[in-house]
Design brief:
By secondary structure, the protein is mainly alpha-helical. Helix content is about 70%, strand content about 0%.
Amino acid sequence: MMFFGGLIRVFQGFAQAAPTLLVGLLIAAILRNYLGPEGTRRLFGGDRWRSLPQSWLVGMLLPVCSIGVLPILFEMRRAKVKPGAMSAFALSAPLFNPLSLLYGLTLSRPLVIILFALGSLVVVTALGLLWDALSRKTPADDHAQSSGEPFEAGSATDRLIGLRRVFATFVQIARQSTGEALVATVVALTGLAVLAAVLPFGAMQHEVERDDWLAPLKMLLVAVPVYATPMLAMSQLGMMFQHANSPGASFVLLILGAGMNFATPLWFGRHYGWKAASMWMASLLVIVLGLSYAINGPLVPPGVEPAGHTHAFDIYANPLTSYHKIDLASIRGLVAKEMDISVIASMIVLAVVACFGLLFRLLKIDEAWLVKNAKAGSLASSLTADEAAPRRGLDIVVPSGVIGATMLAGLVALSAVACYAYYPSPDECLEEISMARAECLSAANSGQVDHALFWLPVWEDWSRRLEVGTFIRTGRVRPYQRMQGYLIRKKLENLEHELEHDPFEPDETKRVVRDLLATSTRWTSSFRPSK
């Protein structure tokens, strides 16, 4: 049971990491092939005082998770970026991005999310300063040292340009997807397997109550091995405030659960020394725990009674009970339950890229090979050669730094556009909600429990998207709309509990459905334009 539960959690974690891992591989390839070491150092503030806040800001703009940030760290180290800036980027990039930040603003009071963002800035700045101080006292290894792979050796003496550089970018992405990045991903996901083995089904439902002063400490023990995407951490944050759980535990989960994973401190220890990494990790835990207890009282949501339990952390405990039937179909069903179209598409792309990576390794195709076999016109040195032909009209060479900066700016712009795609207009959200509501409630009334439980979280997810979609288009969500959204989600939770009741009670379920329908009518009407 422990083995299969851990295996399911690892598969689920890998599926959730696939989209942002692809983004991280792409950003790392852009840093290497377009910005180069000097441009990368400049992007993260160089040796100036602003390197820490600048790294924090860059991290907030890039849509990566704590696994997707690892390939970027590999290139930052190769470019000899300051360790403090790397620490700031590694912790801040997975915490907030445009999608998760907008989502978080609708989950609880906006002030809470803003304070959490400022708290993360305090954490990463303090740790960055500590890391830079440690690096000055201890002899550092060669940051550009090879990671053991031929492609990382950097034996090339010239830079590629044109289509060769585009192909080199793809080669790096493909090789990394089957190399160091893959190993780091597996290490990161082992934390989920450990938690599934240690925590039985439902073990965290009563452990982070508002009045429990040990709640932040308990969350600390759970959050260190956790891997959580920014969106997952934000949704759990909202559920904790909805159930009046400990705000301090919420902060711990956000910083440690979303900000890092098992692979992060291990990678820092491997390349910068275990003593320095241990001090960095210990300081991180002390700072986060201290801040969590400092905010635990002041950020308690007013007027919300503790629910006494939460399902927000069931995803970290073992998904199997002694009553579950263990076979391939049930395992596949539990894994597929957490996958949507974006995850499936990302996993297909990642699988194709990995196949090319294996092929490139088999054929020994890497950066050095591409430079060695390139024609003279495909190398940067050809641009300054005496015999270089003059370029006319539109046949110009755009500096690699301009191309790289444009690509990174495009990623940021794509994140902003994705906000409008992921959070559609209120009219479209209401159409999706209408379909999910009909499927869920008709199934509940007819006793089709599994079908109703499938559509219930879909309905709840669209309720969140409705609020965010309204916010980014109108600039606000009225208090009445927010309250009706809170009520609909509370009653959806009541319906979920009723459906999970054994034995199933049709009359009581129908009563909950009628109550839910009345609230749903008021809720959807509040988002429709008044006539």
